[in-house]
Structures are given as structure tokens and as C-alpha cells.
Amino acid sequence: MGEKIRLDKMLSNMGKGTRSEVKDALRFGQVKVNGMTVRVGKEKIDADVDEVTYRGEKVIYQKFLYLMLNKPQGVISATEDNHHETVLDLIDASYKHYDLFPVGRLDIDTEGLLIITNDGELTHNLLSPKKHVPKTYIAKVKGAVGPTDIDAFARGITLDDGYVCKPAELVIDSVEEDFSNVTLTIHEGKFHQVKRMFEAQGGQVVFLKRTMMNALSLDPELELGSYRELTDDEFKRLVQNVEIS
Ligand code: URA
What we know:
The protein contains six helices and 15 strands. It is of the alpha+beta class. The chain has three domains: about 5-60, RNA-binding S4 domain (Structural Genomics Hypothetical 15.5 Kd Protein In mrcA-pckA Intergenic Region, Chain A, Roll), CATH 3.10.290.10; about 65-125 and about 225-240, Pseudouridine synthase I, catalytic domain, N-terminal subdomain (Alpha-Beta Plaits, 2-Layer Sandwich), CATH 3.30.70.580; about 135-215, 2-Layer Sandwich (Alpha-Beta Plaits), CATH 3.30.70. The strands form three sheets. Strands 7, 8, 9, 10, 11, 12, 13, 14 and 15 form a nine-stranded mixed β-sheet that branches. Strands 3-2-5-6 form a four-stranded antiparallel β-sheet, with no helix packed on it. The two termini are about 15 Å apart. It binds uracil. Uracil (URA) binds near residues 110, 193, 195 and 208. Uracil binds near residues 106, 107, 194 and 208.
């Protein structure tokens, strides 16, 4: 047996209409549960078992939504803002009834993988400092990055406020004349963490993109500003080693 939910709530949560539109549909006999017309919205159904039709069409109940967004620069990781476009402004209105929010934050000038969901418990677990969920970034850093930096990141960088970061894995991908291209995996999420870690080493991050969260990689085919629902396999990668009830 699954979770019981009010029929009218389930229908409006699934975007079938506003509360009053759903109420009208019920009143006009346009909603059936297991083939029987139901006119009372407060009646509870078991979304895993009961078959609901709305105006003749089967309604599949999906409680949580998980979107992978390739965040572009210039938008902020918030649900609303008076000055800037937010990541939620990039999401189609047809998803709005899910009450979505971003899982954590990327800076306004950071690109890449951002999960958008309405699953508060999973979000809490993914962001919990106790879980040490890895996050991988590619960065372009002004100044030379070398083996001593790899060692310093592995030991734990001390930030400007005295905080000692957990060991992080730094890989140098290529070195240009004035810049280094690196991949960095960290296991926590302090404010501006990656930028401040390189600043502590005398470098400056000029480009930052998140490519992985836990075992989930950003789909390289997903264009900046685009998003799509996670596949089942991707969801498993996202929650790997993160307890969910
Ligand atoms: N670290 C940063 O400095 N910025 C981000 O957006 C993410 C991690």
C-alpha cells in the first residue's frame, strides 16, 4: 500500500487545473477512481494502487520531480529574486505546480550541474555536512597550478576565515601560458569554496563549472540553460551512499 492522498490534491498537484477547476471537474462527474465516478475531492486514494482518470485520461501520480539543469552564468540559484533571473525562471510553467527549488547553490558566474527538485528530504541529505557528498568542478585558474597545490589540496586548504577544508582531489588537466585547467573534487560546500581554496593558494578562478554531484555526471549533450528529468539510473547515481527513507 502506498501513501494516501486527497483526490483533489493529487489532481491539482499533477497539474490538472487549479483547485476550482478540479472541483468543477469533480462536480460534473469527470473524475473516476477505479472506474467509478467520484464527486468528493476530499476522498483519499492510494496513488500506487488506485487508477484515476480525469476527463477520460489516466492520471499518473508522481510525487517528486528531479531535474538536471545545466546552469548558465548570469542566473542565480534561488527560487525568486527582485533583480536577477533565477534558475526557476528557466523551468517551464508546466512544472510549476511541483514547488521546485535548487539543491544548493552555484554562484551567479558558475555554470553546470544543478539539481532542481521538490524533494526536501533528499536535498537535506545531499547537502548535509555529515554526508560528505562529493562535488566535482572544472576550473580555469589564473596562475600556475602544480604538484605542491595537489599536495596542499589533499592535506586540506585553510580558507581566509581559518576554516580547514576537508581533503580535496585536484587534477591538473592542462597548463597554458597564464592559466591552468583543473578538475577538483570537494566533499563539502562552503560559501564560494572552490574560489576561496584557490585564492588561499595565490590563484584566481576565472571560470567554474560543476560537472558531477555524487556519482551523477552532467549530461554533456545538455546545453547551457537546458534541463531534463533524471533517468532512473541517474537518480540512483545521485543518491548513491546517501540514505533516503
Ligand atoms: N565553489 C565556488 O566558489 N562557487 C560555486 O559556485 C561552487 C563552488
